[in-house]
Amino acid sequence: MPVIYDKVALIGLGLIASSMFWSGKRTGAVGHVSGFARSAETRETARRIGLCDSVCDSIAEVVADADLVVLAVPVGAMGAVAREMAPHLKPGATVTDVGSVKQTVIDNVGPYIPERVHFVPAHPMAGTEHSGPESGFATLFDNRWCLVVPPEGTDPAAVDRLEAYWHALGSQTERMDVEHHDLVCAVVSHIPHLIAYTMVGVADDLRRVTDQEVIKFSAAGFRDFTRIAASDPTMWRDVFLTNKDATIEMLGRFTEELFALQRAIRTGDGEQLHAYFTRTRTIRRSILEAGQDTDKPDFGRVQVGK
Amino acid sequence: MPVIYDKVALIGLGLIASSMFWSGKRTGAVGHVSGFARSAETRETARRIGLCDSVCDSIAEVVADADLVVLAVPVGAMGAVAREMAPHLKPGATVTDVGSVKQTVIDNVGPYIPERVHFVPAHPMAGTEHSGPESGFATLFDNRWCLVVPPEGTDPAAVDRLEAYWHALGSQTERMDVEHHDLVCAVVSHIPHLIAYTMVGVADDLRRVTDQEVIKFSAAGFRDFTRIAASDPTMWRDVFLTNKDATIEMLGRFTEELFALQRAIRTGDGEQLHAYFTRTRTIRRSILEAGQDTDKPDFGRVQVGK
User: Fold this and answer.
1) What are the Cα distances from residue A18, in Å, to A42, A93, A112, A230?
2) Labelling A194: which of A56, A184, A243, B234 has CA 20 to 30 A away?
3) Which residues of A2-22 are buried (b: 16+ CB within 10 A; e: fewer)?
4) Is residue A306 part of a domain?
5) Which residues of A touch B143 (CB under 8 A)?
6) Do A209 and B125 touch (CB under 8 A)?
7) pTM of whole model > 0.95?
8) Are A33 and A119 in a shared domain?
9) Phi, psi for residue A238 in degrees, rounded to 5
10) Pairing status of strand A94-97 against strand A68-71
C-alpha cells in the first residue's frame, strides 16, 4: 500500500488514537507517527508499550513537520489545543479530529487553522467501553464507518486523502453535513449512552433492591447497559454539553415513546405491546445483515466464572 | 452425579426448556425427559434435533409419571396449562415454572395444584435474544442465578430438591419472597428490556434520520440495545402486563433520573454529569468482579464482515 501521509501526529493518546496507530502500522499506509498526551503518565505508558514511533513532550514538537495532525482529545479541550498548535503547523498539512460532535469542533478549532492548512473534521463510529493508551487495538475500525464532515470550501484533494487514510485503517467513509451529523450521532450514540447511564444510575440508587442483587442478577438484561455506561466520563460530559440541542430534541422523542408504552402497560393493551416488540426485532435483523453486529447469542460473550 | 429426578416433563420447548434439556444431559442429573409444545411445528423440530428423550403430543401424556413438571411457556399461558395438566399429575410430583414474574404465576397456577403435589416456582436469570426450540444450549445457566420463590408452607424437601436440580444445571440458587422477586426483576430485567425496546422504536420512527443511517452507524452505541429488543415479543408482552405495579414504579424512578440528567445538560452542569458518569463505572466493575460479565472490550464481540 502506498504511504498516504509521511508523518502523522496524534494529539491525545486514548482508545481512538492508540487504535489509529496500531491499525495504521498493519498496512504501512503511514510513515512516521508521533504522539503527544497532556499527562506525563500517559506519555510514559506510551513509551513503555511502543505506542507511536516517537512520543513528544510538547504540542509544538509533535506537530512539527506533520502532514496530518489528529486531534483525539475530548471535544471540550480541542479549542485550546488548536490555539497552541496553530503557529507550529506545516503549510499544506491537514488537521483532522475524531470528536463525536462536529459543530462545536468546527466552531472552536476552525478559527485557529492557518491559511495554508486544511481542516477536515471526521468522526470514526467505533469504540469500546475502555479508555486510555493501553486500550487501543488494530482492528477497532475494521468494517466500521468514519463520517467525514468537511466545512464548505475545503480542498477536495485534502478530503480525498483523509478518506484514503481511513480506508487504510479499515473503515468505510461517508461524507455528511455538520447539522445532520450531530443529529444522527444523537440517535445512534449520544442518546443510547445517556439512557444507559440513567439506567445504571437508577439501579445504583434504589433503597428497596440492594447493589448486591443488582450485580448478581445483572445477566437478565441490566448488564448490557453497564458496558457503555462505563465509557470515559470526560468525553461523554463534553459530548452532552456540546450537542445539547440534538440531544434534547431526541430525548423528547424518547420520553414521548416511553410514556406511550407506559400507558399501554397501565391500561393492559397487550396488542400494542406485542406489535411494538415485533417491530423492533426487524431493526436487529437489518443490523446483522449489514454486518454491524454478530448473531451469536449474547454477542458471543464468553461465559466467565467467579 | 446421582439422579435428582427420574422423570422430568418440559412444557413449552423454547430457549429455556431446550437449554434445561441440554444442560441436564451433561451431568446425568435427570433420567428421562419428556417434552411437549402446543405447536406441531415445534414438536417436529424437537424430534428432528433430538430435543427431549420423548416428545409427546398432549399435556396429559407429557406429565404422566413425571417427578418434575416444568412450565416453560409465556407467563400469560401458564394458568390454562396448569388447569389442563392438573388431573394427570402423579402424587408426590413437583410442579415448577421458569416465568419472569412470580406473583401472577402463583395466583394463576397455584389454585390448580392438587393436594399431594408440590409447587415450587422458580426463575432462572439467564437468557439470550434468541427463542424457539433450536436456540437452547447446555451452558446457558452456568454461573447464573436461579431465584426460587416457594409460597408459604411449601414442603422444604421439595424446595431443596429443586435447588439441587438447578445446581446440576450449572446455576447458583437464591430464595426470595415473591414481592421482592418481582421488584428485583423489574430493575435488573424488565425495565432494561422496556428501555431497550423504546430506544429501538424511537430510532425506527424518525423522519430526519434514515433507517439506513441508524443501521450503518449502530456500532456507536445503539446496537447494544437492539439485542435485548429482539427478544420474544409474546414473552415480554406477558411480563409487562403481569408485573405492572413494579414496572410502573421503576419507570417512575427512571423518568425522574432521566429528567435530572436532561436538566443538567440544558443548564450546562458539567460537574453533575461528570460525577454521574464516574459513579456508573463502579457498577460495571462490580459486575465484572462478580463474574457476571466479561471484561473483553465490546463483550468480546467477534467483528463481522459484510
Assistant:
1) 11, 21, 25, 19
2) B234
3) eebbebbbbbbbbbbbbbbbb
4) no
5) 303-306
6) no
7) no
8) yes
9) -65, -40
10) parallel
